[in-house]
From TrEMBL:
InterPro entries: PUB-like_dom_sf, PUB_domain. Gene3D superfamilies: 1.20.58.2190. It comes from Trametes coccinea (strain BRFM310) (Pycnoporus coccineus). Residues 1-23, 212-274 are annotated as: Disordered. Residues 1-16, 212-227 have a biased composition (Low complexity). GO terms for cellular component: cytoplasm. Residues 249-260 have a biased composition (Acidic residues). Transmembrane segments: none annotated. This is PUB domain-containing protein.
Length: 274
């Protein structure tokens, strides 16, 4: 008699099938673990990179300040740093173009900005430029194996310029404000001086007018005062009198045309005295 296999119950069959949710969760955990490991590796590489280049960044910072900023006039130092950054950025942006990988130290602008100032040519060498002679002409040519140094040096220049240009802008604003305040103070003093002169002129004019009016009043008062009276009588009183010589004067009461009476003189006879 053939033996028959015992059929599985539904519960045991369900237990034998894989749990898809559990499998998906396990896969997700594995992927997450791989992502975390990759991030940790990247962070470790970044940390190692930072550690390896920390000294290089510090070296470039020291070459900028105090190496370039302190011994040179500030405007010249800032312009020289901008020129160095332009040289580095041209190579970073155009790594395959040879024309950006060299400069001639006898060029007037290069000589003024990179050769004559203190510390600038040394910075170019630290970026990766080395002196060469071609056809008896001096050049500084970039070594393409120094690209990492070039990028670090350019980053340090950007860092310094961001800091120094802000300070420069603040200093220029402060100087402009001080100049404006000084000019305003000078203008105020001048205006006060002009106002004082104008006020003094008005006062002098009022005093002059006052003196002129007083003089006119005095002159008018003098001309209006009564003249000395003439006490001589306009008419002679009628009557008679004697002169020292003894003559008798008779004054008539009748007026003539000019308002005076007529006068008659009678000789004095000796007999009259007796």
């Amino acid at each position: 008699m053939d033996s028959l296999s015992t059929p599985q119950s539904p519960s045991s069959a369900a237990a034998a099938r894989p749990d898809h949710d559990a499998v998906a969760a396990a896969i997700e955990r594995r992927l997450q673990a791989e992502r975390e490991k990759a991030a940790a590796d990247a962070a470790a590489r970044g940390s190692a990179f930072d550690i390896r280049n920390h000294e290089k960044r510090q070296e470039f910072r020291r070459m900028i300040d105090p190496g370039i900023l302190r011994p040179n006039p500030r405007p010249l130092a800032l312009e020289a740093l901008q020129t160095l950054l332009k040289l580095a950025q041209n190579i970073i942006d155009h790594p395959d173009e040879a024309k950006y990988q060299r400069f001639k130290p006898t060029n007037p602008n290069i000589k003024r900005l990179l050769v004559e100032p203190r510390g600038t040519l040394e910075y170019a060498v630290a970026l990766g430029f080395n002196p060469h002679i071609e056809n008896f002409q001096p050049f500084y040519v970039f070594n393409t194996r120094r690209m990492e140094d070039l990028k670090i040096g350019a980053a340090m220049i950007k860092e310094a310029l961001d800091r120094e240009l802000v300070k420069e802008d603040r200093e220029q604003r402060r100087s402009a404000e001080e100049k404006a305040a000084h000019e305003a103070a000078v203008a105020k003093v001048k205006q006060a001086f002009y106002d004082d002169r104008k006020g003094r002129a008005l006062i002098d004019e009022r005093e002059r007018v006052t003196r002129a009016a007083a003089a006119a009043n005095r002159a008018a008062g003098s001309s209006a005062s009564p003249a000395i009276a003439d006490y001589r009588p306009k008419r002679r009183m009628p009557g008679s009198g004697h002169t020292l010589s003894g003559e008798t004067i008779e004054l008539d009461d009748d007026d003539d045309e000019d308002g005076e009476g007529s006068v008659s003189v009678a000789p004095n006879h000796p007999d009259d005295d007796e």
